[in-house]
TrEMBL record:
Protein name per the record: Proline dehydrogenase
InterPro entries: FAD-linked_oxidoreductase-like, Proline_DH_dom, Proline_oxidase
Entry's family note: Belongs to the proline oxidase family.
Pfam family, one: Pro_dh
One cellular component (GO) term of this entry: mitochondrion
Organism: Phoxinus phoxinus
Length: 399
């Protein structure tokens, strides 16, 4: 609780200081420890050292540019073009340095498409069907007119799809692009766009992945629907399986709008949902490892143990392409390192960027959950224990 409060206060202080100094001044003068804990740095030069260290420990860095927008924060076409350039740099950086033999990166669609349009598309999806083939044609530059959108919304969607097409073209056969899941009021639109990317780029292997949030009551159905679409439309599917990072805001919003809470009632139900989705994916992978891939993206030791046990039972390769594990930079290194030491493929999600761009990410890291912060405490206790052991060894000479 204390750690949570301290991080929240630090972030509030950061926001205040940013207002006083302005974005640039703030980035250069203030880099609080919470930034150092969860973000690798701002430039390639700054992050290269930690990437090398990570590689030497047997961990794969998975770069993420945590630029994102929520409702009311839209910044205009030029800013989305600038963000595209940042994403393309990220694709390049992910493979040219040889930090990982099977590079992956994360992508937030709301860095390239306005959240307002995503919300509108999400509500249209309740009544309209969008053909993935038509979206693919729009990605390739065809002047498609999408039903239900105004002229300016349609133009923005066409530009956005072309931006995503450029990312797909730059990364296919080189870097696996894992699209993040965000809020339920826009996830259906994000998934539609991601599925269109999968349809185009995942013919031979899963180069584009989607994220499935198991804290949602609907998570199992959403995953099963996606699998069915991939079968019907003949493409490979990559799944990032998470519990979900937006619980507090989702709950508050549902309560405010008088809707049913989209999140499972308890952590235990979220765990059951995570285990169920994991089981579905591991079984599919054991049958067709060339069509299905998963990253078990969690800090939860029980989930990790379950995945490891099931992989052994199903005879899945520890260092094969189809199953890997993921943790966030600054969280649960003991889990990542233990997995890597036992021959599993482990990715550490490495956000980089200015303090300003990474603020929403940092706020979530603080709010996300108290249980992960307990993980940090556990790590600290393990380090203390090891330090004490080594000191004792030095003093007494005993092993
Ligand atoms: C590589 C990677 C990528 C990620 N990408 C995304 C992403 O794209 N989108 C996203 O949303 N998150 C993403 N996450 C964040 C992830 O959602 C959180 O790190 C995760 O929720 C923390 O949970 P955990 O699985 O580590 O396990 P735990 O620490 O065991 O579980 C905590 C989680 O359980 C859920 N929970 C807690 N209490 C309750 C309750 N009372 N009722 C119901 N559920 C509860 C919440 O989701 C909470 O975050 C990613 C994480 C990793 C490691």
């Amino acid at each position: 609780m204390v750690t949570f409060l301290v991080i929240s206060c630090l972030i509030k202080l950061m926001s205040f200081t940013r207002t006083v100094l302005g974005t640039r001044g703030f980035s250069m003068v203030v880099r609080p420890s919470v930034y150092a804990q969860f973000v690798a740095g701002e430039t390639e030069g700054e992050i290269a050292d930690s990437m090398q260290k990570m590689s030497s420990l047997g961990l794969h860095p998975m770069l993420a540019v945590p630029i994102e927008e929520d409702l009311g924060e839209s910044t205009g076409e030029q800013r989305y073009e600038d963000n595209l350039a940042a994403m393309l740099d990220c694709v390049l950086m992910s493979y040219v340095n040889g930090w990982s033999k099977n590079p992956m990166m994360q992508l937030k669609i709301t860095a390239l498409v306005s959240p307002e349009l995503c919300v509108k598309l999400t509500s249209l999806l309740k009544t309209e069907q969008y053909d993935l083939n038509v979206l693919v044609r729009a990605m390739e530059g065809e002047e498609v007119v999408f039903p239900g959108l105004t002229e300016s919304e349609n133009t923005h969607l066409l530009f956005s799809l072309q931006r995503l097409n450029k990312i797909g073209e730059a990364s296919v056969d080189k870097v696996r692009v894992l699209v993040d899941a965000e809020y339920t009021y826009m996830n259906p639109a994000l998934s539609l766009i991601t599925m269109a990317m999968m349809k185009k780029f995942n013919q031979q292997s899963a180069w584009i992945w989607n994220t499935y949030q198991c804290y949602l009551k609907e998570s199992k159905n959403i995953l099963l629907d996606a699998i069915q679409t991939s079968i019907d439309q003949s493409f490979c599917i990559g799944v990032k399986l998470v519990r979900g990072a937006y619980m507090d805001k989702e709950r508050k919003l549902a309560q405010k709008e008088g809707r049913t809470d989209p999140i499972h009632e308890s952590w235990e139900l979220t765990n059951d949902s995570y285990n169920g989705c994991l089981e579905i994916m591991l079984n599919l992978i054991s049958e067709k490892p060339e069509r299905y891939m998963i990253i078990v993206a969690t800090h939860n030791e029980e989930s990790v143990r379950r995945a490891v046990t099931r992989m052994d039972e199903l005879g899945l390769h520890r260092d094969g392409n189809s199953v890997c594990f993921g943790q966030l930079l600054g969280m649960c290194d003991h889990v990542s390192l233990t997995l890597a030491q036992h021959g599993f493929s482990v990715y550490k999600s490495v956000p980089y960027g200015s303090v300003d761009d990474t603020l929403p990410y940092l706020v979530r890291r603080a709010q996300e959950n108290r249980t992960v912060l307990q993980g940090i405490r556990k790590e600290r206790d393990l380090l203390r224990q090891e330090l004490r052991r080594r000191l004792k060894e030095k003093i007494t000479g005993a092993r």
